[in-house]
Amino acid sequence: MSTRSHITTHVLDSVTGRPAVKVAVVLEQRVTGGWRELAAGDTDADGRISDLGPEALPAGRYRVTFDTGSYFAARDQATFYPHVTIVFELDDEAAHYHVPLLLSPFAYSTYRGS
């Protein structure tokens, strides 16, 4: 039986109104002296990664980095943001954390999803 990760993501290309497919994503945890990579993957046909990292994580600081430059380069589109990094606090070890990204070549937005 497959279960979802403690942290998931979804990327929507807000210019086309469609999922952003094959965006490389890295999940890291803040540790003493820097960051430790926990997982990496590419968004699927629906712009999602539901298996980004383990099923459970301790409270702490995490970051998700999206390789938006490669995504736009593959579409022959210039972009101002070659990477988007979202740093957040995981404080409820029992809760699911969804970190969505609404993306365009010259702007982005995020929020705490469900």
CATH class: Mainly Beta
Q: Which bin fits the share of residues in helices?
A: under 10%
The CATH architecture would be Sandwich
SSE order, one letter for each helix or strand: EEEEEEHEEE
Mean pLDDT: 95
Keywords:
globular; mainly beta; 4-stranded antiparallel β-sheet; Immunoglobulin-like; 114 residues; 5-stranded mixed β-sheet
Task: Offer a concise description of the structure.
Helix content is 5%, strand content 47%. The protein is built from 1 helix and 9 strands; from the N terminus they run ββββββαβββ. The strands form 2 sheets. Strands 1, 2, 5, 8 and 9 form a 5-stranded mixed β-sheet that branches. Strands 4-3-6-7 form a 4-stranded antiparallel β-sheet.
Tell me what the structure shows.
Its EC number is 3.5.2.17. It catalyses: 5-hydroxyisourate + H2O = 5-hydroxy-2-oxo-4-ureido-2,5-dihydro-1H-imidazole-5-carboxylate + H(+). GO terms for molecular function: hydroxyisourate hydrolase activity. By secondary structure, this protein is mainly β. The chain has one domain: Immunoglobulin-like, CATH 2.60.40.180. Strands 1, 2, 5, 8 and 9 form a five-stranded mixed β-sheet that branches. A four-stranded antiparallel β-sheet has the order 4-3-6-7. The radius of gyration is 14 Å and the shape is globular. The two termini are about 20 Å apart. The mean pLDDT is about 95.
